[in-house]
Amino acid sequence: MAKEKRNIEINSRADTLPLMGPDVRPWPVTPPPTPEWVMDNIYAKRKAQEFGKFLEDNLRLDYVFDKPEALQGLRVMCNGVWQISRLFGASLLSEQGAEVMHVEPPGGDPLRQLTPFGREEYMLKDNVTGEPCGLDFLHEFRNAKSITLNLETPEGRELYKSMATVMDVIIEAWPPGYMDSLGIGYRQLSKLNPRLIYCWVGERGQWGPGKDEVSKHGQWTLDPFSAAADSWIHNTGFPPDQCPRGGKGGDVMRSGAWLPSYVCGEQATVSILAALFWRDGVSGEGQFIEVTAAEALMDILDFDIGWYGFNASIKARTGAWDPNLNQYEWNPCKDGYMMIGGQTDRLWYRIGMCIERELPEFGRLIHEDPLLKEMGARNSLQGLIKTYSITTKWLRDINRIEAEQKLMEYEIAAGPVLYIDEVAEFPHFKYRPWVNTIETEFYGTVMYSESCGAFQHRTPARVKDLGRPLGHDNGEVYQKFLGIGPLKLRELKAKGVI
Amino acid sequence: MDEKELQKMKVCDFDELPGPKSKEELDEMKMPFEEYCRKAFDVGNEFAKPEALKGVRWMSTTMYIFTPHSVANLAELGAECIKVEMPRMGDPMRHTSPFNEAYLYPLHDTRPMTGTGYGFLNANVNEYYITLDYHVPESKRVFYDLVKMSDGLTECYRHGTFDRWKQGYRTVAEMNPRFIYVWGGGFGYGPKIFGGSYDILGQAHAGLASITGTHEDFGGHATKCTNWCIDWYSGTQITVAIMAAMNWRLKTGLGTMIEFSQVQAATRMCGYTAPLYGRFGIVRQRWGNWDTQLCVHGIIMTGKSDFPDAKNPQEKFEARYVMVSAFGDADFKELCNIIKKPDLFSTYKSHKERVGAPAQIDIYKAIEDWAVDKTRSQVVKIFKEAGILSEPVLNDKEVYESEHFRQRGTVRWNDDPLFGDILIHSGYSAGLMSKTPRRHKWQWRPVGADNVKIYHELLGYPMSKIEELYNRNII
Predict the structure, then answer these.
(1) Residue A107 to residue B429: CA distance in whole angstroms
(2) pLDDT tens for residues A8-44?
(3) Which residues contact B114 (CB under 8 A, 6 or more apart)?
(4) DSSP secondary structure code for residue B217 in this structure
(5) Which one, of B17, B394, B462, B281, lies nearest residue A420 by Cα?
(6) C-alpha angle B239/B243/B245, rounded to 5°?
(7) Cβ contact (<8 Å) for B423 and A308?
(8) Is the dihedral of CA A22, A15, B284, A258 positive or negative?
(9) Among candidates A289, A136, A268, A270, which has minimal Cα distance to A198?
(10) Distance CA B392, CA B324 (A)
C-alpha cells in the first residue's frame, strides 16, 4: 500500500506516469483472502477441510521452486521474428524446464517495438542497454535466452548448423521455404542431427495454394489472417439485426487477443512433445512438424465446417449468444454485461426462479411457454430471442454485482464480464495468484499472467524471468555450445555475423 | 596396388561423407521445397506411418468440451482412450446442437428420439465408449481395474467429488504410482473452488471478452468468440501438461496430479493486458477489427457483397469483409496510392504516427470510403495485384471449398464406421507431423458401445458379469 497521501498537480499525461507502477500503486489494492479464511469459510462449508488442505499442501504456487522440472535437459532453439505463436510455444516448453534460446537477427525481432497505439511510454527499458521493449514481447518471452545471428551470412549459417547439431528441438517461424533456401531447413539439418525435432509455425502453411505470403515490400502474413481463412472471424461478432454495420458493432469480428497465434503455439508444443515421446521412448528419430494458426484454430472451431457438410448450413454471427445452448450468453446490465449459463432443466428453471422473484412475468412468459419446456427446442432462434429479451429486462435495471449475488444464491454459473483491473482484484485470481508480479532481471517488477501448468503435484511449470535484452546471452551461449570465446565473438560481431 | 594398401590410403568412409548417397537422396535434396513438404507430410497416407503415442491408455471421465478435448488430442496422436459416460444418459454435450437441427443417428436405447447432436463433434474422436455409474458401490472395483490398466485419466467433476468417492488422486496413486491424474475445471483450490464454470465464463471473467468486440463509444458490445474457444484451448494446454508429465515419467516412473483451471487460461492469452495494467494502470479496452499495435492491419467492410443474388443471407449480405495488412512504410505508401489518397501517407509517414488511435480512425475510414463501390473480391484483387497482403474473410462454405485446405487434407470427408460420410476439419492437420501424423479414425460411438470390448476383451470380465452389471444399471 502507498505509505502517504500526497498532493500532486496533473497537467498532462507525463505527470501521471510516475504515479503508476507497482512501487507507487501496489497490487493487489485489497489483500487476497488468507488460507485460514478460505479453510473456515469455503472448504468447511462443504466439509472439505481435509481435501482442501491436501490440495493447498500439494499444489500451491508457493512451492513450485521446491520441485523438479518436467522437461529438464531439453534444449530448444527458437528461430524467427514476428510470430507470437513461436514465443508462446517456446514458453510452454521453458515453463516446464526446457532450456530455450531465441535466435534473432542482429536488428532484433520487430515485435520488440510493438506497443499499443505507438506509445513508447508504455514500453519498458532494460537496465543494461536502455533499449525499450514492447509489453507483448516481454510477456511472452519467458525463461529464455536471447542470441543474435545473421543467417544471411555464410558464417552465420555455419554457426546455426553447429548449434542445430546439439539441439533437441528447433521452432522456426520464417516465411515458407526461406530457411530451406538458405540450406538450413529441416531437409538439411536432419542430415546433421537425425534426432532433431523441427517445428515450423505460421498462419496458413508453408505449402499449398494458399500458403503464407510475403508482400512485395517484405511484409509477412500475420495474425489474424489465419482466422480470416478458417471462418472464425466470419462467425464471430454481432449480426446486423442486433447492431448496425460499418464499425458500429454489427460486423464480423476478430479476437482482441492474438487468439489464433496462441492456439497455434500450444498445438505446436503438443506435437513437439508427442514427437519427443516417440523419439525417446520408441524410435530415436526426430521429425518435421508444421503447425498453422488457421488449422489449429479450425480444429477447435466447434462443428462449424462439419455443419456445412451436414446440411449446407453457413454459420451466422450471434453476438454474445450461443446458438447451441439456452441459457448461455451475456447480456447488457446497468454497468456492463452479465454472463448467465445453465441449459439442463435443473439449472434452467433455477435461473428462472431467481429472475421471477423480481420479474413475475418471466415465469408466465418463459416457464409456461410449451415450446421452451423442451430442452432442445429452447435452442431455436426464437427461443433464444424470447428468453434473452426478458432476461435482459431484468438485468437492465441492476448492476453486475447485484445480478451476480442474486444468481449465486441459486448456485448458477454466472459472472460479469470483467476488465483487467477487475480481473486483477478478483479474490480467486489474487489468491492463486493467476495474475502475478515478478521481479525480472532486466525490466523491474512486471505484472503477468501466471503459467497455467503451475498447479501440478510433482513437476509444476514456473515462470522465472520475463524478457531479455537483444543478444544478451551471445557470450554464454556461443561459448557453451560452440566454444567461441570473447575474442572470436568480438570478431564475429564486427563482421556483422552476430 | 593390393587391397591392403588401398585400404590404407582411405581416410574416411564413403557413407560418412556429406551429400546425397543415392538417387532418392539426390532427388530429395534437389526437389523444390513445396514438393518436399508434400512428400514429407504425404496427405492421405497417414495410416501407413506409426503413431506417436502408441501404447498409451487414457481414461476420459469427462463431459462437455474442455476436458474431453485434452484426451481427444491424445487419441488423435495414437493413444487408446476410453470415454466413460453415465449409463443410459451419456455426456450432456450429446444433447447440444446448433439451433437444435443437426443430429447424427443411429438410434439406440438411451436416446431413441434424437441421436447425438453436432455440439459433440470433434471433442471425443477415436475413443472407446463405455459406461459406469460411480454412485454405486459395486462400480468401485471396476473403476480400479481400469486404473490399474491405464496411464492416466482426465476428470471434470466438482473438486473433491472423486476424492470423496475414493477414486481421486490420493487413492489411485497408491494403486498405480505411474498414474497421471488430471483435474480440469473452472477455478481449482481457493475461494471459488466449488464454482462451476463454462467456456463462456472463462471468456467473460478472465478479461478476454472485455478486449474483444467494438467499443461502446462506437456503438458496439463485448463480443463472444464464435467457438467455445476457452474450452478447446485450455483442453490443449492440458495435453501439453500431460505430455510434459509423461516425459518426466519416462525418466522417473512416477505419475503426478495436474490441476488445470480454464478461467486462468483465458487470461494467459491476453498478451500485454496484464503488464500494461500492472505497470501503468491502463485498463485495456476493445478496438474492434483493427489492431492496437499495427496499422494498417485490420478488417474493412466493402460496399458490395460478392454474391448479391445468392439465396443464403450469409453469402448475399456478408461476403463483404476483407483483411488487409500494410503497416510497413512501403506497403502503406502503396496502399495510399491505390485508394488515391497519397496525402494520407504524407500525414502519417511513420508507423508510430499511423498506429495512433485518431490516425487509425482516419485511415480505415479512407479505405472503406474507397471500397464503398467495390465488392470483396475486387478489393482483394486490386490489393494483391499491387503486392499488398489482403485476403477475403471466408465463411464455412468457402472454407469447405478452399483448394488450400483440401490439398492439405485439412477439410476432408471421412467414411465413419457408424455414420457414413462425415465432414471433418483439421483432425489430421492441427499439427502436421512427418513421421507420426495425427489421424482421425471415427467421430463418436453410442453410449456404452464398447462395454464388451473394454470390460470383456481388456479386463477379462465374463460375459455373464457384464450382463449383470448392465441389468443393474451399473454399466
Answers:
(1) 34
(2) 777 776 777 777 676 777 788 889 999 999 999 999 9
(3) A376, B95, B103
(4) G
(5) B281
(6) 115
(7) yes
(8) negative
(9) A289
(10) 9
Q: How far is A490 from chain B (nearest CA, A)?
A: 31
Domains of chain A plus CATH, in order, are 13-66 (no CATH), 75-299+468-494 (3.40.50.10540), 328-417 (3.30.1540.10)
Instruction: Give CA–CA dist A236/A317, Å, rounded.
Output: 5
Scan residues 443-462 of B and list those with Cβ closer than 8 Å to A: none
Residue type, B389: L
**Angstrom distance (rounded) from CA A236 to CA A487:** 56
| Of A135, A441, A20, A123, the residue nearest B279 (C-alpha) | A20
- Rounded-to-integer distance, Cα B234 and Cα A72, Å: 24
User: Chain B: residue nearest A124 by CA?
Assistant: B279
Report d(CA B124, CA B411) in Å as an integer. 18
In DSSP notation, A135-176 reads HHHHHH-BSEEEEE--TTSHHHHHHHHHHHHT-SEEEEESST
User: Is the CA virtual torsion B420, B421, B423, B429 positive or negative?
Assistant: positive
Check residue A7 and report its DSSP letter. Answer: -
Residues 6+ apart with CB under 8 A from B38: A207
Helix (H), strand (E) at residue A238: none
Cα–Cα dist A79/A103, whole Å? 5
Question: What is the overall mean pLDDT for chain A?
Answer: 94
Nearest to B227 among A280, A302, A418 (CB): A302
Look up residue B457 and give its amino acid. Answer: E
Q: What is the pLDDT of residues A92-106, one digit of tens each?
A: 999 999 999 999 999
DSSP-based helix, strand, coil % in chain B, nearest 5: 45, 15, 45
B325 and A17 within 8 Å at the Cβ level: the answer is: no
Characterize the bridge pairing of strands A169-173 and A75-80.
Answer: parallel
Residue B115 banded pLDDT, cuts 50, 70, 90: confident
Higher-pLDDT residue of B326 and B88 is B326
Where b means 16+ CB within 10 Å and e means fewer, B331-370 reads: bbbbbbebbebeebbeebeebbebbbeebbeebbebbbeb
- Biggest CA–CA distance in chain A, Å, is 84
Query: ipTM value of the model?
Result: 0.95
Q: For residue B113, what pLDDT is reported? A: 62
Query: Is the Cβ of B288 closer than 8 Å to some Cβ of chain A?
Result: yes
Length of chain A: 498
3-state DSSP assignment of residue B25: helix
Query: Hunting for cell 450471434 — which residue is that?
Result: A318
Q: Is the pLDDT of residue B111 over 70?
A: no
d(CA B149, CA A372) in angstroms, rounded, equals 45
Give the total residue count for chain B: 475
* CA dist., res. B130 & res. A106, Å (int): 57
Residue A295 in grid coordinates: 488449422
- The closest CB to that of A450, out of B50, B264, B403, belongs to B264
Shortest Cα distance, chain B CAs vs residue A453, angstroms: 6
Of B207, B247, B351, which has the smallest distance from its Cβ to A273's Cβ? B247
- A96-121: string of b/e by CB count within 10 Å (b at 16+)? bbbbbbbbbbeebbbbbbbbbbbbee
Residue range B51-60: mean pLDDT, rounded: 97
Residue B90 C-alpha from the chain's centroid: 23
Q: Give me the amino acid identity at B28.
A: E
Domains of chain B: 57-268+421-471 (3.40.50.10540), 297-395 (3.30.1540.10)
Per-residue pLDDT, averaged over A452-466, amounts to 97
Cβ pair A231, A301 in contact under 8 A: yes
Residue A154 exposure: Cα atoms within 13 Å on the Cβ side: 0
Q: Please give the grid coordinates belonging to residue B337.
A: 496510392
- All cell numbers assigned to B204: 467473460
Contacts of A478 (CB under 8 A, 6+ apart): A147, A159, A484, A489, A498
